[in-house]
Amino acid sequence: xxTASVLPPPPxxxxxxxxxxxxxxxxxxxxxxASPGRVAGAAAHLAALGVIGPAVxxxxxxMLGSGxxxxxxLLVGVVVLVVFVYALFAVxxxxxxxxxxxxxxxxxxxxxxxxxxxxxxxxxxxxxxxxIDPLQWRAVASFSIATVMxxxxxTALAGLAWGLALAVSPIFGWxxxxxxxxxxxxxxxxxxxxxxxxxxxxxxxxxxxILHGVVVRAIFVPSxxxxxxxxxxxxxxxRAGAVRAAEVERTRIERDLHDGVQPRLVxxxxxxxxxxxxxxxxxxxxxxxxxxxxxxxxxxxxxLRQLARGIHASVLExxxxxxxxxxxASRSHIPVTLDVRLPRRCGRAAExxxxxxxxxxxxxxxxxxxxxxxxxxxxxxxxxxLWARVEDDGLxxxxxxxxxxxxxxxxxxxxxxxxxxxxxxQGGPTTVEVNVPCAS
Length: 440
What we know:
The protein has 440 residues and is α+β, with helices and mostly antiparallel strands. It has helices spanning 36-69, 74-103, 119-131, 134-167, 169-172, 189-220, 224-278, 283-311, 314-319, 321-331, 348-369, 405-415; strands spanning 176-179, 183-186, 336-341, 374-380, 385-392, 419-423, 430-437. Helix 11 (348-369) links the parallel strand 3 and strand 4 (374-380). The longest helix has 55 residues, at 224-278. The model is unreliable at 1-31 (pLDDT under 50).
């Protein structure tokens, strides 16, 4: 199998690495974490986590201990540890969704990590990638901190309730009590201590709620410097992809001209020269040679037209991706089933990248895969990206060769800021998926 993946430029939002988090909308530069509604919500969240968090971690640690202890019984221990890894993912997904719902940080939903490798090796690699996923562990750390803060919040609320009971105790005739079961209280000291306990409990709950907002922002929202570093890295990746794509395209054009059109034009010139020598002595032979040169000229024009279409598809710009793909499918040497659902036009760069990726994939299928049919699916996803999938029923075993067609697909998609995934096991089928951010 061959798989190629390229990282798209993540938008400057707190969604983490784009490998597992699709693009999201913009986020305000300053998110208020101390508004009254959010403070109240955070206090309620912390109180709930103070109750359920310990039970969750008890279950997780029990699972981890059982898995390690049962490693001697290899299969059982491994299965338990795999369940533990994905239980951690479930906790991380919940925590990320909880924080985003409370503070509206614009976080992308956490998604399971998937390996590009085939078969059982790919399954093991997926589990390993999930186990070391930094986004997952960041969310688990947030859940752990929130649980500890929740325990303190529950204690503060319990103290608040106790203080409230003391404050109103004179109404019900409760004149004597003990503070912390040690210091006896009586008379006016009872409601006074109650009022102080209420104030301390409320202040502790509010302070913890505000601190929770600061902590989760520090955990989930990258610093401005980190955002700039990531943007610079992805810009370099896109620039390198664009340069490489231009080199591959130039090489392809040179090869097509050198191996196709140029020999044909040389042959036409030789045929016309031979006809010129025979025009006086053997007019009939000269006419035949001229007719042959004429036919070769039309073939050369066709090849030049196809070459120009490979450089720039005018129908793509004039009528859109759907019409361009229909024209492409009609010229394909193997039957192509098209399923294109585009509610709107996307940006020119996105449409061109997807069009040429599909065109190159169909060309490779016709030349190398011995496929009897191809299927092309194109969609605009909810996150605003343009997605396409091409699958043929050929022999598979495609490999990315520098300067080859698949290399051109990867570089062109990289230059557009998208991702490409090429899956071609021996025996087929070959599947190419591309996902490019839509500019409009």
